């Protein structure tokens, strides 16, 4: 391994061993050194940017206060440098953006009011008179976007201030929830207003990266207020996508760093591939060294691993064990099926959830088929937010019964059968059974009594046996043709049930 990587990797090992209670930055600094020596500068810069985002993910109040007391220019220096690399900016504007990022992080972690006031004052002082005058002039000139953004920001700020005066915390304000009328969430309105106001100063090419960072911060804030398993599964892809979009780096690099932070060494192999052209087996052997530095990952960055463990232990394993126990004891309840289908845990089954359920059951129903099931089983559509597009537990069970009955009816119709035909067959079989009993009684009587009556009965039964065998041969010859017809009918049924017919 040392020969493959050179002396740089050998020099990195003592640094990792000496980290002790350090953070993941020591490891990534070593990776950056390898990238520099290997003429892969952009990859090394990407690693530093991902480190900044991981630092923000694991941010806590104590860490934030420590950084502020040290007087660092920014919590995310590499990120700000990447965002401003595409435009010609002055050092003053770069410092201003740094302080704005500090202020956003302080708001997200609910820093003390005195500290936030100090940071706001620093932002105003750093902005300078020229930029404030330029901003005011754009408002006075009456640009529609600026006026609309300023008005939205003032309304949102007034609403937040009013809720804060009522004693509500940030988690109680539910800034990330949609309005009752279906409008955007307050946090989305604030983000759009801020971006519209900053657009004249930053330019169009920086709008998407900065907006992606704000989206990541919003997702992290929502995850901190609702750390449920479903919310974690729902938000994690958006967080990873936002980080990759903001930093303009491949998503597999982001996944590799997250896997490294959570202890998934096998997945982290891809993170080291750009450094050399080693054989995959050699890379896997290199991963044997990584568990020795696992103790250095117990900083704030390890929050993702802790959430992952909590999800597995507190919810998934318990739920799987409960359902498995019910199945093994043959005590499965309708609520078990309902809970498995109700992915968003809102107590109702939506159209999309019911469609996924039918697919897992072997059906691929069209839109009008789903609406037919809902219209047959929906009892109460008085709720304006429902519109008949959600099913309760009782309605969900009725929908499954209706679907089963519908498929059975269609199948019998395509086969040329009906419920009346089935009843006729049942009566016919009962009559045949009764006749068999009568014939058995006659045979026993003829055998015991003998004479003319017995001879007649024995002759009739011999003739009947021959006729039965001949009839059986005829039916066997016709069964093959019936089987072919049945196969074609079954295919037609599948096409009709599975497709929009």
TrEMBL record:
Coiled-coil segments, which residues?
none
Residues annotated as transmembrane = 422-444, 450-471
Keyword annotations from UniProtKB, A to Z: Calcium, Membrane, Transmembrane, Transmembrane helix
Instruction: Tell me what this protein is called.
Output: EF-hand domain-containing protein
Give residue ranges for domain EF-hand.
329-364
Instruction: Return one GO MF term.
Output: calcium ion binding
Keyword Transmembrane in annotation: yes
């Amino acid at each position: 391994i040392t020969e493959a990587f050179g002396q740089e990797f050998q020099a990195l090992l003592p640094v990792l061993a000496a980290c002790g209670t350090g953070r993941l930055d020591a490891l990534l600094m070593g990776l950056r050194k390898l990238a520099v020596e290997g003429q892969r500068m952009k990859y090394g810069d990407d690693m530093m940017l991902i480190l900044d985002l991981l630092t923000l993910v694991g941010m806590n109040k104590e860490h934030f206060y420590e950084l502020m007391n040290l007087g660092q220019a920014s919590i995310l220096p590499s990120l700000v440098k990447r965002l401003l690399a595409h435009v010609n900016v002055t050092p003053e504007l770069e410092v201003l953006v740094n302080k704005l990022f500090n202020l956003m992080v302080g708001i997200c972690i609910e820093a003390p009011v005195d500290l936030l006031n100090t940071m706001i004052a620093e932002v105003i002082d750093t902005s300078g008179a020229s930029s404030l005058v330029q901003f005011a002039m754009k408002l006075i000139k009456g640009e529609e976007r600026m006026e609309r953004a300023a008005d939205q920001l003032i309304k949102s700020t007034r609403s937040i201030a009013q809720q804060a005066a009522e004693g509500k915390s940030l988690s109680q304000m539910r800034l990330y929830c949609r309005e009752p009328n279906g409008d955007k969430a307050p946090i989305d309105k604030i983000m759009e207003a801020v971006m519209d106001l900053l657009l004249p100063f930053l330019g169009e090419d920086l709008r998407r990266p900065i907006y992606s960072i704000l989206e990541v911060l919003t997702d992290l804030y929502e995850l901190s207020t609702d750390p449920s398993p479903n919310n974690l599964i729902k938000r994690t892809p958006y967080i990873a996508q936002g980080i990759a979009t903001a930093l303009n780096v491949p998503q597999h690099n982001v996944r590799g760093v997250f896997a490294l932070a959570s202890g998934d060494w096998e997945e982290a192999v891809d993170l080291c591939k750009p450094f050399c052209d080693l054989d995959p087996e050699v890379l896997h052997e290199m991963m044997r060294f990584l568990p020795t530095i696992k103790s250095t990952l117990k900083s704030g960055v390890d929050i993702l691993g802790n959430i992952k463990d909590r999800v597995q232990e507190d919810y998934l394993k318990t739920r799987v064990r409960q359902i498995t126990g019910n199945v093994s004891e043959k005590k499965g309840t309708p609520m078990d099926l309902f809970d498995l289908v109700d992915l968003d845990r809102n107590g109702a089954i939506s159209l999309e959830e019911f469609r996924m359920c039918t697919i897992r059951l072997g059906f691929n129903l069209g839109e009008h088929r789903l609406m037919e099931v809902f219209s047959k089983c929906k009892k109460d559509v008085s709720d304006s937010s429902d519109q008949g597009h959600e099913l309760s537990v009782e309605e969900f069970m009725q929908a499954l019964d209706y679907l089963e009955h519908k498929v059975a009816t269609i199948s019998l119709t395509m086969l040329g059968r009906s419920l009346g035909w089935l009843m006729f067959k049942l009566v016919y079989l009962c009559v045949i059974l009764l006749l068999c009993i009568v014939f058995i009684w006659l045979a026993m009587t003829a055998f015991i009594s003998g004479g003319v009556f017995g001879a007649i009965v024995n002759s009739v039964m011999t003739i009947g046996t021959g006729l039965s065998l001949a009839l059986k041969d005829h039916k066997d010859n016709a069964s093959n043709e019936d089987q072919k017809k049945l196969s074609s009918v079954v295919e037609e049924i599948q096409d009709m049930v599975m497709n929009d017919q």
